[in-house]
Amino acid sequence: MPADAPQSAADKTLSVLEALADHSRIADLAVATGLPKPTVHRILQTLVARGFARSDGHGEYVGGPRILSLAGRFLQRLDLAERVRPLLRELQEATGWTVHLALLSGDEAVYVAKVEGAKPYHLASRVGMSLRLHCTSIGKAILATMPDEEVRALLNRTGLPARTPHTVTDPDVLLKELAVVRRQGFAEDHEENEAGVRAVGAAVFDHAGQVIGGVSAAALVFHEEDAGARGEAVLRTAAAVSRALGG
C-alpha cells in the first residue's frame, strides 16, 4: 500500500497489534504506528475486550492470551512445534508421561505442543489452552526465573484462584516453593491445577536468556510414582528445547 494511501480500520488495528510486540505505552504505540493517541486507545480497548491485549491497569499494555491461543493452533502445522517435537517425543519415551511445551503470553502461558503419554488415558490439556502460572509446573518454573518482587506484582494482578483443594493460594507459601524450584531447576505440580494429575516442569529460554515458556511431563497420580523422579529428564529436555529455539 502506498505510504500516503488512507489506512483502513483493519490496517490500523494490525499496526497497533504489531507495535504491541515492542511497545507497551499508548504514546509509544502512537509514535510507532503514526496514529493519533485516541485512535490507538480505542483499538487497544477492542484488543483487550477480544483477548488480544491485556492492560496492567497503569497505562501499559502487553499481548493477550488469545494471540498465543490462535498461534497454538497454527503451530501444530508450523515449524516451531515440529522443530522441537523430536525432543518432546524423547522425553515422553523416557518418562512414559504426557509431555507439553507452553509459551509465556502476558501473565499466562499457552500450550503449543503436546505428546501423549504411553498410558491408555488422555489428559484434558490441549494445544491452544491457556494455563495459570501459580498452580502449574510450567507456570511455577517460569515464575522461579523472576525476582520475588516481580512475582508478587504478577500475583497481585492475577490473584491465586484455587483450581483444586491442593492449589497454593498464599503468596508467601508460593514464594518459598519458588526458592526450592530455583535450587533444583524444576517445579512440581501436585494436583494443584487439575485433581488427580501431577506434573514436573522446567523453564525454556530464548537467545537473550529471557524466559519464554516451559516444558512439562504429566500423569495421573494413581498410575505413577513421584513426579520429582522425572525432574532431571524434564530439565535436560527444557535445556535442549531452549537451544533449538535459539537459547
Topology at a glance:
Blueprint: H1 9-19, H2 26-33, H3 37-50, E1 53-55, E2 61-63, H4 65-75, H5 79-95, E3 98-105, E4 108-115, E5 130-131, H6 137-143, H7 148-158, H8 171-184, E6 187-190, E7 197-205, E8 211-220, H9 231-244
Antiparallel strand pairs: 1-2, 3-4, 3-8, 4-5, 6-7, 7-8
Helix pairs in contact: 1-2, 1-3, 2-3, 5-9
Please give a handful of descriptors for the protein shown:
single chain; 247 residues; alpha+beta; Arc Repressor Mutant, subunit A; Beta-Lactamase; six-stranded antiparallel beta sheet; two-stranded antiparallel sheet; 9 helices
Polypeptide structure, described:
By secondary structure, this protein is of the alpha+beta class. The chain contains 9 helices and 8 strands. The protein has a 6-stranded antiparallel β-sheet with strand order 5-4-3-8-7-6, sandwiched between helices. The chain has a two-stranded antiparallel sheet with strand order 1-2. α1 (9-19) packs across α2 (26-33), α1 packs across α3 and α5 runs antiparallel to α9.
